[in-house]
């Protein structure tokens, strides 16, 4: 996590483009939501399976509303946690941990997998992922240019 005294905080807009390279996702639109604690990724289907004695998750997703083909991803399951949605409903969701690239930084985030097909953005980036790294200006949108992989700083 960035030291708030030594590193100036980057200000982002309410929506940005991100990458999830461990999942093979080079570009994904995300809504930044400081009111949500956790981050959520849309999945169309989800299967759990065992690999080397550990629980893994296989899931398919569309990268955008206009994207005709789905991609298939696999990741080790982090755990299952109760999540309360905006309507106050509590559900158990699977979580994974993945590298996320945003604003020239690469860092690890916990992401729950859920059906977000009725939402505008396939990824919701919550305050736990943003805290100490970024400020969010709701009047701004898509503030970051897509940078080549070599320009991403790992934290």
Describe the model.
The chain has 155 residues and is mainly beta. The protein has one domain (14-138): Beta Barrel (Cathepsin D, subunit A, domain 1), CATH 2.40.70.10. It has one helix and 13 strands, in the order E-E-E-E-E-E-E-E-E-E-E-H-E-E. It has one helix spanning 127-130, and strands spanning 10-13, 15-20, 25-33, 39-42, 45-51, 54-61, 71-76, 79-84, 90-102, 105-114, 123-126, 134-137, 153-154. Strands 2, 3, 4, 8, 9, 10, 11 and 13 form an eight-stranded mixed sheet that branches. It has a three-stranded antiparallel sheet with strand order 5-6-7, with no helix packed on it. A hairpin with a 2-residue loop joins strand 5 (45-51) and strand 6 (54-61). The protein is globular, with a radius of gyration of 15 Å. It starts with 9 loop residues before the first strand and ends with a strand. The mean pLDDT is 89.
């Amino acid at each position: 996590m960035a030291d708030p005294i030594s590193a100036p905080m980057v200000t982002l807009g309410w929506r940005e483009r991100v990458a999830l390279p461990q999942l093979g996702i080079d570009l994904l639109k995300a809504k930044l939501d400081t009111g949500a604690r956790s981050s959520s990724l849309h999945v169309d289907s989800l299967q759990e399976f065992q690999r080397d004695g550990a629980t893994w998750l296989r899931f398919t997703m569309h990268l955008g509303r206009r994207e005709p083909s789905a991609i298939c991803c696999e990741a080790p399951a982090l755990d299952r946690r109760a999540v309360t949605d905006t309507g106050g409903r509590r559900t158990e969701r699977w979580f994974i941990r993945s590298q996320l690239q945003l604003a020239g930084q690469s860092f690890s985030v916990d992401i729950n997998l859920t059906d977000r097909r009725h939402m505008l953005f396939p990824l919701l980036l919550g305050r736990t992922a943003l805290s100490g790294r970024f400020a969010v200006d709701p009047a701004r949108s898509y503030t970051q240019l897509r940078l080549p992989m070599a320009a991403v700083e790992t934290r």
